[in-house]
Amino acid sequence: MAEIQLLGREQVTLDAKHRLSLPARYRDSVSALCADQLVLTEHPDGFLLCMPEPKWHSFSQQFSHAGSANQWLKRIILGGACPVQLDSAKRLLLPVELREAARIDKLALLVGVGEYFEIWNPEDFAALRNKQRALRAAEVVVQEQNLQASLQEVRW
Length: 156
Description:
- The chain is an alpha+beta fold.
- It is built from five helices and eight strands; from the N terminus they run ββαββααββαββα.
- The strands form two sheets. It has a six-stranded antiparallel β-sheet with strand order 1-7-8-4-3-5. The protein has a two-stranded antiparallel sheet with strand order 2-6.
């Protein structure tokens, strides 16, 4: 059997009770992976992690051997963890502390990254994506300048 992957991006609207409705294309996969049992937590980069419970279990075990240098990371990720279960309509409640940490209000961007989801404020995601694109473009310009300088040094 092929490994189930959670892939793609989809913007979703939270309802009045701050529940995120899992898009239909993910529902069967999430049900198969974890019987609708998920864990939400804050990521230090300003978005939320949403992991199937079995993935969360293996992920969180890594912190049991983490040294004191990682204590703050443990506080953020483990201290902010919140088990959630999808309801019968395949919605999950985003707790206020986590919504505030990720600056999520009415809209969220659900990003499938293989074994889990990231949940972003759509504006934050777009800003970071644009910043990354600009950095890559600047690297290309520098590489081109270096190539041109190297070509000028070569005697043909």
